[in-house]
């Protein structure tokens, strides 16, 4: 099985949970490779967002506080830098105040081959995220076999999880 098929299978597994809702850019409308990774996920479980990364994660945190299980999708890890306030200062810190929202955050490190999308789309900030986060678990997956394991763990965890898909590192 290749990496893309493993991710699609993991998304279908998450979609089987009645609490899940998939939130992000290119989740309902084609425009990025992320769209194709959701093949088979019902459209009524997908919520398209404009380019408002900070709001998107804040919105997902709110959904989680109401009992939903948002899968918050960023097509590129680089774009998550715009959501750092919501990630580091809110989602990660709420458990310290007795709130336990659970969000599965999904992002991807952009590939440099066959076409290099440039440094704004291909950076890997996994190490920095691990340094900043205390309650959100950060998992980097590089091989197809690890994809299912990571998303299954994220589904079973009681806390939020950030999964970094990095097929170029495998």
Notes on the structure:
With about 170 residues, this protein is an alpha/beta fold. The protein has one domain (about 5-170): Thiamin diphosphate (ThDP)-binding fold, Pyr/PP domains (Rossmann fold), CATH 3.40.50. It contains 6 helices and 6 strands, in the order H-E-H-E-H-E-H-E-H-E-H-E. Strands 2-1-3-4-6-5 form a 6-stranded parallel β-sheet, sandwiched between helices. Strand 3, helix 4 and strand 4 (about 105-110) form a beta-alpha-beta unit. Helix 1 packs parallel to helix 6 (about 145-155) and helix 3 packs parallel to helix 4 (about 85-90). The radius of gyration is 15 Å and the shape is globular. About 35% of the residues are buried. The mean pLDDT is about 90.
Alpha plus pi helix count: 6
Q: Helix/strand-derived class?
A: alpha/beta
Number of strand segments: 6
Radius of gyration: 15 Å
Concise account of the structure shown:
The chain is of the alpha/beta class and 170 residues long. The protein has helices spanning 3-15, 33-36, 53-65, 84-91, 126-132, 144-156, and strands spanning 20-24, 46-48, 69-74, 104-108, 137-141, 161-165.
Give a quick set of tags describing it.
6-stranded parallel beta sheet, alpha/beta, Rossmann fold, 6 helices, 170 residues
């Amino acid at each position: 099985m290749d990496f893309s098929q493993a991710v699609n299978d993991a998304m279908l597994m998450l979609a089987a949970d009645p609490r899940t809702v998939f939130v992000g850019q290119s989740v309902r409308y084609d425009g990025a490779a992320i769209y194709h990774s959701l093949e088979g996920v019902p459209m009524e479980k997908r919520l398209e967002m404009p380019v408002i990364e900070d709001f998107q994660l804040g919105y997902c945190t709110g959904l989680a506080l109401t009992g939903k299980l948002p899968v918050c999708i960023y097509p590129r890890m680089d774009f998550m830098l715009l959501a750092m306030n919501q990630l580091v200062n809110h989602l990660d810190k709420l458990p310290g105040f007795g709130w336990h929202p659970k969000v599965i955050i999904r992002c991807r490190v952009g590939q440099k081959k066959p076409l290099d999308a440039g440094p704004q789309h291909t950076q890997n900030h996994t190490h920095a995220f691990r340094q900043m986060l205390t309650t959100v678990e950060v998992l980097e997956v590089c091989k197809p076999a690890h994809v299912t394991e990571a998303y299954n763990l994220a589904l079973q965890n009681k806390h939020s999880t950030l999964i970094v898909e990095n097929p170029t590192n495998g």
